[in-house]
DNA sequence: CCATGTGGGACTTTTTTTGACCCGTATTTT
DNA sequence: AAAATACGGGTCAAAAAAAGTCCCACATGG
């Protein structure tokens, strides 16, 4: 029998290690995004005791990663550098690199990036996903491209984390669809504009009322201005989109229980650009509206960057991101593990647990998070 | 300012980690070589509390690396496999790979292998060095070679750790010099025979009285049998030798304080094949005797495997193993760090400490070791 | 048959960790 | 300007973990 012990052998010798490393890394990462921040805020955020946080911070301070100021805890230069550069090392240490490879094989797409942590229990993971996706996005950009972006918190995070630096010339950013009734920060229009601003590119928007009848849509299609933007959108060569769960989307549309029941009946698990997919990736429903038609995108779309995380979206991700050689997936650890567990009945081994810094909540805990 | 944080970043996040890993590894390694062995023996050997050992063993048992039997602690299959395969990973984790590269550059020799630990405080390190050297030795062997070995504990360890498997045909093992008065187990003759046995090769020995006058040596030289073996020795294409410190050698020769003082005066720090070297690698003295003449070895020697460890031998190693492109050095962590610190005024960074499992000795401790 | 070394159990002491405070101050909000 | 908030730091006791120190029953080997 051959024992395949490689870079993870250290964690086998010190099984308590991953927990420690993850806890400190999460703290560091949170401080990175939220500094200056206080002990109590951190403790509340991660559901840890205040004293535990203090101890960890002391260690991090001794290591020179954080400095303590009157306003709160901040990262030192070394700390910032650490957060930025530790990722590849941490990923291999936590087995995420292996996870990426297994997902790549399972989903048969071009590229998979898995970010450590669980988006649902640590909101900072969303930002980290955004940062990773932003880097991928920049790699995809070429002169005179049209980039279409969708709405949602995930894409908003990408926009947030994009560095402010000029992209190749001639790029136009457009929303993939006219506004779906959402918070303005998460609307495709808003995100497109913010992305364009970060990239120093131009952008075109498509403002539409929330719910339109078929007749109204037909009428709008005859408008030259609208037509023009739609053509632009459908000539996109790069797509950046999140994934909605069916429940989320139905709720966001203000749909009644009736409609939600219908979606569930059809087995809808994920939504992209207003199109609902079931487990197998088939289209089972769509929201009437104007914009990009994913099915019609054939030749000229080169890269589809899918960014979504959280255990709840696992099924949706697997359904949407499967079997497209043009797809690039950016997700988080919890979603990645969930997908693999569901899809291939993951032979659960020791150490494949996902570590979260917090403790079990007790009665009396304040569960609100910053 | 550029922060070079790479694979060691994990240890920066968890500074207590190297100590834990090294401790467990040392325990595992000791068990590997000495099983079955009991808690108390381990505790005494490593100068640890019995309870500490018990706890570590519990963890190692939970991890499936050791099993506890009535006769003592033994390694499981997984444990054996771990000890064998963790080495490269551990080396990079402890920065030994980097250490090897720096030594390679400093000494300008062909190859450097650094084994974790300190030979002086953990005798098992000697065996580990032997195992590494044995592997190197096997790589060097080609058909019809003559292999000359020296005496000493280091070479004895190599002989011990050599696997029993046939070497290329036609190999002859010889002692590099006639017996210097030592314990028989560590004499070159003994070691040559044991190496040959492991390699399934033939061997020739050269038995000589301890101290001989010049006249006696000259007379022996005229003996055909002796002459024949000497020719064989001097046709060696592979050398395997340890390094003696001057003190050690003088003591072993039973030399009086007078002679030791003379050696010290001349600056002798290391000895190989009865030849003493000073800091710079110059020959400052020699023990009269018959055998291999290192200086005359020119063309036909292809590989010189130097195996020596321990902080005390650092200077000797640096003096002897320098500037020979044919040299391969196998040493331990403590010697390697000491060499670098002395030779290039090592800019001491955090984490470059060498971890030993024990604690500081107290009064009342039983310091004897198995 | 006894000396030695083994694991396991039990107990106390010591150290570390954690929780729960309070305090003075700087900053923000009212 | 005053109140409220959030910050770091300090302190103390409870709790938990670790470590030291025994003793016992059992095997093994001289």
How would you describe the overall organization of this protein?
The structure is a homodimer of 370-residue chains. Chain A is an alpha/beta fold and 370 residues long. Chain A has two domains: 7-85, Winged helix-like DNA-binding domain superfamily/Winged helix DNA-binding domain (Arc Repressor Mutant, subunit A); 93-344, 3-Layer(aba) Sandwich (Rossmann fold), CATH 3.40.50.1360. In chain A, 44% of the residues lie in helices and 14% in strands. Chain A has 16 helices and 13 strands. Chain A has helices spanning 9-13, 17-34, 39-46, 50-62, 77-85, 87-93, 96-107, 124-140, 153-161, 188-199, 214-221, 224-233, 246-252, 257-266, 314-320, 333-344; strands at residues 66-69, 72-75, 111-115, 146-149, 172-175, 202-203, 238-241, 244-245, 268-272, 275-278, 283-286, 303-307, 327-332. In chain A, the strands form three sheets. In chain A, strands 3-13-12-7-4-5-6 form a seven-stranded parallel β-sheet, sandwiched between helices. The first copy, chain A, has a four-stranded antiparallel β-sheet with strand order 8-9-10-11. In chain A, helix 8 crosses helix 9. The longest helix of chain A is centred in the first third of the chain and has 18 residues, at 17-34. The radius of gyration of chain A is 22 Å and the shape is globular.
